[in-house]
Design a protein that fits this description.
The chain is an alpha/beta fold. The protein is built from 22 helices and 21 strands. Strand 15 and strand 16 form a beta hairpin.
């Protein structure tokens, strides 16, 4: 049989079929219809054999099964069984690899598919731990009505194989799924249990978590999350707390009125069962009682993140009993109601000081008012998030204005302030209005390492007035060693409002004069060059207001807001 080299497509029809034996050609010419059908089938089988043999030289065919499996795991998306069907139809070898790997089918398990197909996928997962993950968007898919019967198929027959049980949806949908959970064989493989109710927080839309689920043995459970659910704290105490000593993350939030918040003493008993706890989040989950004052301290050696949302008194009481030497992320979110007890703000700050580890070093402090909330951040310039975050939420401006002096005065008990070098502050006059110059002086005496003050889009005029009065007094005394507030202050970043720029320049001028340095009128000259009218009048207005002990005749620019903070510039002290 003659052979030829590779033939170009353009020459394909010009080459005679010399590769076929002459005997076969004569047979074809003399054959009848039945014989031609037989020859045609024979040639097709021969070509199939040639194609298979040729495919063995392809790169994909030369890869070992383990490498192909890694590639398949990379391209198969979560809840995507369609790609598995495509892969299984490429060739017999690929089909065998796909069908024999249960981890691929576990990853591709999608509860929006047909009931029969979901059952087939579950069967192909064999005995590997299962992942049940349903979010609110799954119910909005075209086949969202398939989810509940498909999930019930797994929870009813295979819940003991579940490693992840994460359900997010409306109350009715979640309750229908929870009713089907078969806990007769426990949950020996379950690592994560998350139930998140997205319905509005009213009694008619509460998710009732059955006690039998919380009392089920889950020895490998590391994460528990319940949001907007009604459940029994006693079931958690006698169930999960007794069986799941490996728990690392606990999140209880939006507890409804139908679920009594646990007492501080009961919560401390529950937390003692979780020595490996690293992340704790509690939202309106604790109620303080008169007998809680003697609650035993809870030592959580590995706790690194603690977020608590509640009233001032409840947050204070809880933080006072927690010992967390590894804590690096503390968020305290305080509600406006109920009214705190007298001295509540000071006690809250004292509790924060007690729970924050002494080895932390903070270089930045941020105090800002935004959308009815006063937010305080303590962090490090190189850290991606603050170490301490305190939020006073939903306090009316007048109420917050009355409380803000107490907040500033009480903050100084936090030792982290001693190392602060950058101070970011943005406060409307309605919040700052009650702060006396002496209050700011007291605060500055505890953050005397600050070298940079950044004034946001709501510059605190009374803070600048305190610095002005201090510099003015030092200038009048003309001492050889003037005692200025913030002796390390070198830079003030402020808004483009001319009055504030003039005000800061006057402070810089007085501080430089008190220290025996040459004064500068650069900024005033710049304002004059830009055509700012009646600069002397502005200068006199600032002096009159800054030296006035009362709160009358507040200039208009004191209450002005800058929308674009990108225009804030720096001024050297």
């Amino acid at each position: 049989m003659a052979t030829t080299n590779s033939i170009a497509d353009s020459q394909l029809y010009e080459v005679p079929p010399v590769t076929l034996p002459d005997e076969l050609l004569r047979t074809i010419l003399l054959a009848n219809v039945a014989q031609l059908d037989y020859i045609h089938t024979f040639l097709r089988l021969a070509m199939l054999h040639v194609s298979r043999q040729r495919n063995t030289f392809a790169v994909a065919a030369c890869l070992p099964p383990e490498v192909l499996l890694l590639i398949f795991e990379h391209i198969v998306g979560v809840k995507d069984s369609t790609i598995l069907r495509v892969l299984s139809q490429v060739c017999g070898r690929w089909r065998a690899i796909v069908l024999e790997d249960p981890l691929l089918w576990r990853k591709a398990l999608n509860f929006t598919g047909g009931h029969k197909w979901v059952g087939e996928v579950v069967m192909r997962t064999k005995k590997v731990p299962l992942w049940i993950g349903i979010n609110q968007y799954d119910f909005t898919e075209d086949y969202g009505e398939n989810i509940i019967p498909n999930v019930n198929l797994v929870t009813g027959k295979h819940f003991s194989r579940c490693a992840i049980f994460d359900i997010e949806g409306h109350s009715g949908e979640i309750e229908e799924i929870l009713e089907s959970v078969n806990t007769n064989y426990g949950a020996p493989l379950l690592r994560s249990l998350s139930i998140r109710n997205i319905s509005c927080s009213v009694q008619e839309h509460v998710v009732n978590v059955p006690d039998r689920l919380l009392k089920t043995s889950m020895p490998r459970l590391t994460s528990l999350r319940l949001e907007r659910c009604a459940f029994s704290w006693d079931a958690i105490h006698t169930g999960i707390a007794s069986h799941s000593h490996s728990l690392k993350s606990l999140c209880i939030s939006n507890v409804c009125d139908t679920t009594p918040a646990t007492t501080l003493s009961e919560l401390s008993l529950i937390l003692e069962f979780f020595p490996l706890l690293e992340d704790l989040r509690l939202q309106d989950a604790i109620s303080t009682m008169a007998g809680d004052n003697g609650t035993t301290e809870v030592a959580l050696q590995r706790l690194s993140s603690l977020h608590i949302w509640s009233s001032i008194d409840t947050c204070t009481a809880f933080l006072a009993i927690v010992c967390a030497p590894s804590l690096v992320d503390l968020a305290v979110d305080v509600n406006a109601t109920p009214e705190p007890s007298p001295g509540g703000v000071h006690e809250l700050m004292t509790s924060i000081q007690l729970v924050v580890p002494s080895h932390l070093v903070c270089t930045s402090l941020d105090i800002a008012h935004n959308s009815g909330c006063l937010i305080i951040w303590l962090g490090h310039g190189r850290a991606p998030k603050p170490f301490v975050e305190v939020t006073l939420r939903d306090w009316a401006p007048r109420l917050l204005g009355d409380r803000f002096p107490d907040v500033i005065t009480s903050m100084v008990v936090i030792q982290l302030l001693r190392s602060v070098q950058e101070f970011y502050v943005s406060l409307p006059y309605s919040v700052e209005r009650q702060v006396a110059a002496e209050t700011w002086r007291h605060f500055f005496s505890h953050i005397n390492r600050v070298s940079h003050i950044h004034l946001g889009n709501r510059p605190p005029a009374l803070l600048l007035r305190a610095l002005y009065l201090d510099a003015h007094m030092a200038h009048l005394q003309r001492s050889d060693e003037p005692h200025l507030l913030l002796p390390s202050l070198a830079k003030i970043s402020l808004t483009p409002i001319y009055e504030y720029r003039v005000f800061v320049d006057m402070i810089v001028d007085l501080r430089a004069s008190a220290a025996g340095l040459l004064t500068t009128r650069t900024l005033l000259q710049q304002c004059a060059d830009e055509g700012f009218a009646d600069l002397d009048a502005i200068h006199n207005q600032i002096v009159a207001w800054a030296t006035n002990a009362g709160d009358t005749a507040v200039p208009d620019w004191v209450t002005r807001v800058v929308e674009d903070e990108s225009s804030i510039g720096d001024f050297e002290d």
